[in-house]
Amino acid sequence: MAKEAEPKTLEPLVGEVLLEGAIPNSDKGVGAIVELTKRSLMPSIIGVDVPDLGPGLPNRIPAMLDARTGTISPAQSLIEAFRTKPRTKNGTARALTLKAFIDLTNRHKTEHSAVFADTDWKKPSFQAVIDYHENASAGPADNLKHRISYAFPASEEWKAWVEQNGEPMEQGKFAAFLEDRIADLSAPTDAERIWLELDFGTTVATPAQLIQLSRGLQVNVDSVVKNVVNLATGEAQVAFEETHTDGDGKPLKVPGIFMLAIAPFFMGEKVSLPVRLRYRKAGQKIAWFYQMYRPDQFVTERVRDDLITVAARTELPTFEGSPEAA
Q: Quick one: DSSP state of residue 283?
């Protein structure tokens, strides 16, 4: 008599039971049913198709389906919790030199990047917006969150001259100041000399003449003023009652203008700036001071020249003004 076939059984693993699509009438079947129930109740991430809602929005978004409540919620916060790198570039890098600003801008720029310049001579600055809006009339907007700034930090030489600009100084202090800052002085070009002497009706001193003046003032620091005469050349002639000579036995000649050649900004290009030399007689003493001539004009010109340099080296559009807020 033929032996009856043994009933077909499934593998003990639930995963295999589910794959075969059969649930046996046994404890294995009960376990499979429990597993299926658990899986059906677990939240899952699904893709939801959306209509075209305009630039910047996807046509399909991830959502979390909660089978127990039948609700759907955005899955972005859950997904973003596991992000290991930023989604977009953002933040502001601060350059300390013009070269660093240009190099950083070239490192990150795109075809839509732009540079904005605040040309206020007291607080000039450049700002490159890397993720700037597309320049086409129908192009999409961008985030405006990735930027590079350069705030034109003032040089130590510029700060020293600006600090004392227009401030009266007693003779010894003024003589020492000229001695300390002698490296900042320059001789005028022929064109500068002609322009200044014509416009101001005075002589323009060379660095050597200013050194001679500062040493003469130092010699006479304790002397009283005997006489001050304004000469037809625009110079002033100062005679002192006690030691009143400059080494040649003559009264000191004080020029009306001298020239500075200093960089207003740290590691920047130099500007040639006229400075008017002034004095004020008070009794038997003289207070000395100087006045930088139109520093706003010369600094603004320097900033605009630097903007031209930025445009040439980055090949980006430049604008005087400020970008939109991010």
A: T
